[in-house]
Every structure is written in C-alpha cells, then in structure tokens.
Amino acid sequence: KAGVTQTPRYLIKTRGQQVTLSCSPISGHRSVSWYQQTPGQGLQFLFEYFSETQRNKGNFPGRFSGRQFSNSRSEMNVSTLELGDSALYLCASSVTGDSGANVLTFGAGSRLTVL
Amino acid sequence: GESVGLHLPTLSVQEGDNSIINCAYSNSASDYFIWYKQESGKGPQFIIDIRSNMDKRQGQRVTVLLNKTVKHLSLQIAATQPGDSAVYFCAENPRYNFNKFYFGSGTKLNVKP
Question: pLDDT tens digit string along A53-82?
C-alpha cells in the first residue's frame, strides 16, 4: 500500500511569491491534514479536509489556504510568502469518519525555503 | 492549548538500556494521544497510541503510560537500539477536534553504541 506522497519535496521561493504544495493520501483515506514544522514553533496544525470540506482550522493567517479534491488529494497554497514561512510542510492522512480522531500517517514533507 | 517548541531536550542512553521519554500535555479535554518518531529528513512515524479511558498500553518494545491527574504521558522503550535514535513527539487530540492534534516540542533520543 503506497504511503502519503507529497510534492515537491524541496522548493525555493522569494518573498512575495506564492507556492502550491500537493498531497496524495493513502488510498481509502478521506481525511487530509496539513502541519507546519519549524525549529522554533515545532509542529503546528494548519487545517484538515474531509470529503472536500475544511472541517478544522489552525491559527494561521489567511495567506494559508487549502482544498481537497473528489479523489481525496489535497493542495495547500501560501500567498505573498514571507521569510518566516520557511518550514517543512507535512501532510497526513487518516481514515477517520465522525467517530473521533485516528492515527495520522504522515508524508515525508515539502521543504520550503523563502529567500 | 498548543504546545510550542522552544528547545529540544536530549536524552542519551546506552544501547540495550531502557529509555523513558516524558511529555506534559496541556488540555484536560484531550482524550486521544499518539507518540511519533521522526528521523532526519522524514515525516513523523506512528509508534503507539492510547485513549483517555486507558492508563497503559503496550506495543512491541514500547509502552505508553497516561496519567490524566497530572496530565502526563510517557513512552518507555525497552532494550534501546541505535535505530531508535530520532526525535520523539507526543501529540494530543482534544475531544470534538476531529484530526487536529497538538504536538509537544519533542525529545531527541541519542543511543550510544
């Protein structure tokens, strides 16, 4: 069974640009969550999508957005990049329905560097 | 509440010894907890989980203990091996938060051969 796939693995952008990151969840997983990981702030929740709907959101500015497609694949976008957006962006998928949380399976992440 | 990573404590153990990694969680409404292991250049990898209606759960070479009274979680690794060297995170999930987890700042485990 293929794991969670994130693309691209590495990318470099300059301030003011925008970036789109992609995540393909494990087959059959309908929930996709995004996390930002930095040395200073650790792992922080960005948002979660389930059945193409955002059902949970973290405390990030509106520059961070996402979406989920009918095949459960997800993308996140960051507009007007700032130096502080440099981070490892992790996607995680889960089978969870409405009964409660379940194990998150993470991808290897997309390493974004903003210059 | 959220846990913020300010620094990464390090635990150094000798190969073959037992390791204990501790985590203090912040939300008394959390009812699901997971321990993750993260190796350099990889995403976090699931180790073991526990729900709040339990106080202990065992896996292969690992045990998680949950003390809800003091909001404390620990991960015990038996017979630690060099391959266990990694950063370990605890994650808590408050009730009704779907898959929103709050992660601890992490502990770096260094296994000496």
Answer: 999 999 999 999 999 999 999 999 999 999
Decide if A105 and B100 are in contact by the 8 Å CB cutoff. Answer: no
Write out chain A residues lying below 8 Å of B88, CB-based.
none
The answer to whether the Cβ–Cβ distance between B103 and A107 falls below 8 Å is no
Mean per-residue pLDDT, B38-66: 94
Of A22, A109, A100, the residue nearest B33 (C-alpha): A100
Burial of A84 from C-beta contacts in 10 A (0-12 / 13-18 / 19+):
exposed
Residue from the list A48, A50, A101 with its beta carbon closest to the beta carbon of B32: A101
Residues belonging to chain B with any Cβ–Cβ distance to chain A shorter than 8 Å = 2-6, 31-32, 34, 36, 41-46, 49, 89, 91, 93, 97-106
What is the secondary structure of chain B as a DSSP string? ---------EEEEETTS-EEEEEE---TTEEEEEEEEE-TTS--EEEEEEETT-SEEE-SSEEEEEETTTTEEEEEESS--GGG-EEEEEEEEETT-TT--EE---EEEEEE-
Amino acid at A102: N
Which helix (H) or strand (E) segment holds residue A35: the answer is strand A31-38
